[in-house]
Write a structure and sequence with these properties.
alpha/beta, eight-stranded parallel beta sheet, 16 helices, FMN
C-alpha cells in the first residue's frame, strides 16, 4: 500500500540573533541576554522536537562578511547574520535534551579535509543515536578562504570537484567499520574484531586519506546530506549526493521549474528522484488572525535597516551592491563568489513584482504573514502542486517564530493529514524516508 505523502520541516538556525530576516533581532521579544548559554540552544531543540520537525541545522560561515563597502562595519555593527559560536559544539547539547529530531551543521569541503569531517560528524551521529545531518557547502567568499589560509577562493568548478572527492573519501572512511566490529568482550579480552575494520586508501586528484577512521560505525552509517546547489555545477552535485535539498525561490512557478530540473538530474544519475526531498525556504509571521499577523509583520518591517539589508544582500551575492545596479552587473562583478540561489531569488523577485534588481536587493526577505489557516493554505498549495516536499523555516524572530508555528500551524497541518503526529523512526534517515 502506498504511504500517504507528508511534508518535511527543517529549521534553519544561526548562532546569532539574526537569521535570514535582517530586522528580527530588534524585535522586543527576541532575547539577547542568553546568546552564550546552553539553555538557549537546548530550549529551541525541545521546541522543534515537540513540533515534530524532521531536523534543525545551523547555517555557518568561516568569518565575518566584509563585502559591503569593503568593510564589516555595517554587517557586524548593525546585526547581520553572523556565526558567533561553533555549531559543532552546540549540537551535542541539543542532542542531550532530545531523542528524535535530526541535528546538523554547515561544514565546508573547501576548508576541511575528509578525515576531520568524517570524524567530527561521525562523533555527532554516535552521540545523538543516529540523528546527524551535514549541510555540505563549498563556500562562496574570499573572506572565508583567507581565514582558511588561502589567498582566495578556488574556482567554483574546482570547489565542486574537490567536494565530490571529499564526500567519496568520507564515505570510504565511514564504511571502513562493519556494524559488528566493536566486540567489547571483557572476559575474552577482545575489544574489537580488527578484521572488520579497513583502510580507506582513498586517493583523488584533490584529496587523499588512508584511514581507518577512529570512529566506529554509527547508527546511520553516514549522516543525512543536505545541500543547496543552485548553479548548474551545484545542481549536479546535489543530484548526486543530497537527501534533502535546501532552495530559495520567489514564486511557485520558479519552484516548480527547479523541482522539474532537479528530478531529471537525480534520475539521470541513477537515483530515485522522489527519494530526494526538495525544501524551499519560507519565512512566516503567525497571528491568531490575519490582521494580527499583518500588524506584527508591519511592526517588524518598520525596524528594517536599509544599510543592513544591502550589506546582507552583498554578502549573499559576493559583490558590493553599493556600486552595482543590475543582476547582470552583479553576476559579472561577483565572478567566482556569491551564492547563485540568492542571486536567482532576487532576480525572480524583481521579475515577479515588476521592480528593478536594485530595488529587489534592498528589500528584506519577504514574509508570509497570516493566521494558521492562511499559512497552512499556502504550504498545502505548494506541497500538493509538486513545488516542494516540505519547507526550511528560518526564524523571523527567534525563538518566537518556532514557538508560535509549533503551537498554531503544526496542529492545522496535522488536522489536514499533511504532517506527522509522531516520529516513525529513531534515526533522522528513518524519519526522512518515512515521514509518519
Amino acid at each position: 500500500m502506498t504511504r500517504p505523502r507528508k511534508m518535511h520541516l527543517v529549521a534553519y538556525l544561526k548562532t546569532s540573533p539574526t537569521a535570514s530576516y535582517a530586522p528580527g533581532w530588534r524585535y522586543p521579544g527576541a532575547p539577547l541576554d542568553d546568546l552564550w548559554t546552553p539553555q538557549r540552544y537546548e530550549h529551541i531543540a525541545r521546541v522543534l522536537e515537540q513540533a515534530r520537525f524532521d531536523a534543525a541545522f545551523f547555517a555557518d560561515e568561516f568569518g565575518v562578511p566584509d563585502v559591503y563597502k569593503g568593510s564589516y562595519a555595517d554587517y557586524l555593527g548593525r546585526g547581520g547574520q553572523l556565526s558567533l559560536l561553533d555549531p559543532m559544539l552546540l549540537l551535542p547539547l541539543m542532542a542531550r535534551v532530545t531523542t528524535h529530531i535530526g541535528l546538523g551543521s554547515t561544514l565546508s569541503t573547501t576548508f576541511y579535509g575528509p578525515y576531520q569531517l568524517a570524524r567530527s560528524i561521525g562523533t555527532l551521529d554516535l552521540l545523538s543515536g543516529g540523528r546527524a545531518a551535514w549541510n555540505v557547502v563549498t563556500s562562496a567568499s574570499d573572506y572565508e578562504a583567507r581565514n582558511a589560509g588561502m589567498e582566495g577562493l578556488p574556482p567554483k568548478e574546482l570547489r565542486y570537484d574537490r567536494a565530490d572527492e571529499v564526500l567519496e573519501a568520507c564515505c570510504a572512511l565511514w564504511d571502513g567499520w562493519d556494524a559488528d566490529a566493536l566486540v567489547l568482550d571483557r572476559e575474552g579480552g577482545v575489544f574489537a574484531d580488527a578484521s572488520k575494520v579497513r583502510y580507506a586508501d582513498y586517493v583523488g586528484k584533490h584529496v587523499s586519506v588512508r584511514g581507518p577512521l577512529s570512529i566506529p560505525r554509527t547508527p546511520q552509517g553516514r549522516p543525512v546530506i543536505l545541500q543547496a546547489g543552485s548553479s548548474p555545477r551545484g545542481r549536479e552535485f546535489a543530484a548526486r549526493w543530497a537527501e534533502m535539498i535546501f532552495c530559495s525561490h520567489a514564486t511557485k512557478e520558479d519552484a516548480l521549474a527547479y523541482v522539474t530540473d532537479m528530478r531529471a538530474r537525480i534520475a539521470a544519475g541513477g537515483r530515485v528522484a522522489e527519494d530526494v526531498r526538495i525544501l524551499p525556504s519560507l519565512l512566516v509571521v503567525v497571528g491568531e488572525t490575519d490582521s494580527i499577523a499583518r500588524e506584527k509583520a508591519a511592526f517588524l518591517d518598520a525596524r528594517t535597516d536599509p544599510e543592513l539589508v544591502l550589506a546582507s544582500s552583498s554578502s549573499l551575492l559576493g559583490v558590493d551592491l553599493s556600486m552595482i545596479e543590475t543582476a547582470e552587473g552583479a553576476e559579472r562583478a561577483a565572478g567566482n563568489h556569491g551564492i547563485a540561489g540568492s542571486r536567482d531569488r532576487m532576480a525572480q523577485l524583481a521579475r515577479a513584482q515588476g521592480i528593478s534588481f536594485a530595488a529587489a536587493v534592498r528589500k528584506p526577505r519577504g514574509l508570509l504573514a497570516g493566521s494558521p489557516t492562511t499559512i497552512a493554505d499556502h504550504m498545502e498549495d505548494w506541497f500538493t502542486s509538486g513545488a516542494c516536499d516540505g519547507f526550511v523555516l528560518p526564524p523571523t524572530v527567534f525563538p518566537a517564530t518556532y514557538e508560535e508555528f509549533g503551537r498554531m500551524v503544526v496542529p492545522e497541518l496535522q488536522r489536514r493529514g499533511l504532517f506527522r503526529r509522531e516520529y516513525a523512526g529513531s534515526t533522522l534517515r528513518e524519519n526522512v524516508v518515512n515521514p509518519g
